[in-house]
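Same chain as my last thread, 186 residues:
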Amino acid sequence: MADGEKIRILIVDDIADTRENLAKLIGFEPDMSVAGTAGGGQEAVTLAKKERPNVILMDINMPDMDGITATEIISNTVPESPIIMMSVQGEQDYLRRSMLAGAREFLVKPFSADELINSIRHVHELEKVRRQRYAPQQQQQQQQGGGSTVVVINGGATTTVTVPVGTTTVTAPGATTSRSCMGSPR
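reply #2:
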């Protein structure tokens, strides 16, 4: 994102009033814009793939697909779009599950406008730093044919597969996956 461009945000919440209120708050910020809104997890996955927002605000409890499942899918398919989880549930289990799914921050509702805006800017800045730091390594791995080694253990059988960088891996129910990134030798 070049200087002067706005932080594009996807808002995901099953309550229309919440989506509208968040959009209004974001609208007051000169460096932010709403890239889209979604009323459920499945719609969020579709919109994230299409819009490629800079930041996603994701509610946890939604009827069609919960925010944790949607976060896991989006983190694997649109990794450049960091997710801020929002929930009225402040329990440690929700926080832990959200972070394991790929969320970068967790806001407990109700939160202030300042908390929201600061979280969006913070997550966006961290993502920019991450991209700058890891982009050269990823390009080098792709040029040298590097990838990730994925070990799948399913019912006692073990399979090791090397997949190219940027490939999404999906774990079958009941399977356990271990992944390590293989870089070039130094």
